[in-house]
Design goal:
By secondary structure, the protein is mainly beta. The protein has one helix and 28 strands. It folds into two domains: 4-128 and 272-326, no CATH class; 131-164 and 175-268 and 328-362, no CATH class. It has one helix at residues 275-291, and strands at 4-11, 18-25, 34-41, 48-53, 55-56, 71-76, 81-83, 85-88, 91-93, 106-112, 118-121, 124-125, 131-143, 149-160, 169-180, 187-190, 193-196, 204-206, 212-214, 222-228, 233-234, 240-241, 244-254, 263-272, 306-310, 316-323, 325-333, 361-362. The strands form seven sheets. Strands 6, 7, 10, 11, 12 and 25 form a six-stranded antiparallel β-sheet that branches. Strands 15, 20, 21, 24, 27 and 28 form a six-stranded antiparallel β-sheet that branches. A five-stranded mixed β-sheet has the order 8-9-4-3-26, with no helix packed on it. The longest helix has 17 residues, at 275-291. The radius of gyration is 23 Å and the shape is globular. 34% of the residues are buried.
Length: 370
């Protein structure tokens, strides 16, 4: 496996992000290659671009190594540009009200590293996004090899292409659900029993009488958590009928005591892709499918649209692309589950911060949550 490098690629993306680790064949190198990933869209920014080192999978060093650069600039074909600001190590962001993608224009990004190396992406044209016509869901029942039954919802959509000459799209699914926890009930061992030890974020404390007392609103009792599709969903001409994609499966929502504590907001995003960006995501999907297959080896190199224009030659991977985006959503409620008995009962409270219960969680209520 030497000679293969492991990179982190942020998918959506995109706003929140679901990160997939992909294996790229970049050849042996005494200097770690660089990964640059990000996009610009026709939706208001800010946009983020991530820059990191990539490591050989046999390296003993950390696989997560964001790096800072001297300068990072997005430019369009009309000469408009913006220099991005580093928000945290390796993460660069445009300003609020800054550069925004326009259909028909092409965009590229230039990165100047601290050691003098300069990398530049090939211009990528922003194509029309088409429209999402319907987002809907179907209840399903599954059984595993041991006969255990599970329930969930497939989220599907129908969409129309924006330009009949472009059938290249990437679709993202984001499911959001609300969970409540009880960090004020957290306990620690004290002798042969358990004593109250509420988490600080719960805003509770134990008073002189040994009772729990709240001094302000809890900061970690309610979260909104996201789930994503497991691998990239890219368009396939076999789904197209007269310029329409029909009944495409975008994602899956399991029915359990957490996802349906209240309801689930299921959102599908349709993103246009240039031929080069489409080839990238199609290759990423193929590699992810190969990893989960017992019979298909991981082969091929995921393409990049970056070139090095100065400095000591070192491999670079990743993608910067331009996309038009449209999205549509639907709520799946407890009433959509055929029987209340299919939703497990949460017998014991979760005695910790809601942020520690699921990855991709936030205590900030989304604007779309009703």
């Amino acid at each position: 496996m030497r000679g293969h490098s492991l990179f982190s690629i942020a998918v959506i993306l995109l706003c929140c992000t679901c990160v997939d680790r992909i294996t790229f064949d970049v050849g042996a190198s005494s200097t770690f290659p660089i990964v640059i990933e990000g996009y610009i869209s026709d939706q208001p920014g800010p946009y983020q671009i991530n820059i990191s080192k990539a490591f050989d999978i046999e390296s003993k060093q950390s696989l997560k190594a964001p790096i800072s650069v001297k300068r990072l600039v997005i430019t369009d074909n009309l000469g408009n540009s913006e220099t991005l600001t580093e928000t945290v190590a390796g993460t660069y962001q445009t300003s609020v009200g800054g550069i925004q993608g326009v259909v028909g224009r092409s965009y590229k990004v230039s990165a100047e590293l601290l050691d003098g190396r300069v990398y530049q992406s090939l211009p990528d044209t922003l194509l029309a996004s088409g429209t999402l016509d319907d987002v809907y869901f179907n209840f399903k029942t599954d059984k595993d090899l041991e006969g255990a039954t599970s329930y969930g919802f497939d989220v599907l959509f129908n969409s129309t292409v924006g330009e009949k000459s472009n059938f290249n799209f990437l679709w993202q699914f984001v499911g959001t659900f609300q969970v409540d926890t009880n960090p004020e009930l957290h306990k620690i061992s004290c002798g042969e029993s358990k004593c109250p030890n509420p988490r600080a974020c719960s805003a509770y404390f134990v008073n002189n009488s040994g009772e729990l007392e709240q001094v302000k609103d809890c900061e970690c009792c309610t979260c909104w958590s996201n789930i994503f599709n497991d691998s990239p969903i890219v368009s396939d001409n076999q789904f197209v009928e007269e310029g329409k994609f029909k009944a495409v499966n975008a994602g899956y929502v399991p029915v359990n005591q957490w996802t349906f504590m209240y309801k689930v907001h299921a959102e599908v995003r349709q993103m246009s892709l240039s031929p080069r960006a489409f080839a990238f995501w199609k290759a990423v999907k193929a590699q992810k499918q190969a990893v989960t297959s017992l019979f298909q080896p991981v082969t091929g190199k995921v393409p990049t649209n970056f070139v090095q224009v100065s400095g000591t030659a070192v491999p670079i991977e990743g993608l910067f692309y331009a996309t038009a985006m449209t999205k549509k959503s639907v709520f799946i409620t407890r009433n959509d589950v055929p029987s209340e008995s299919m939703i497990p009962i949460q017998d014991l409270p979760f005695e910790d911060s809601c942020l520690s219960l699921f990855p991709n969680s936030t205590t900030t209520k989304p604007d779309f949550w009703q």
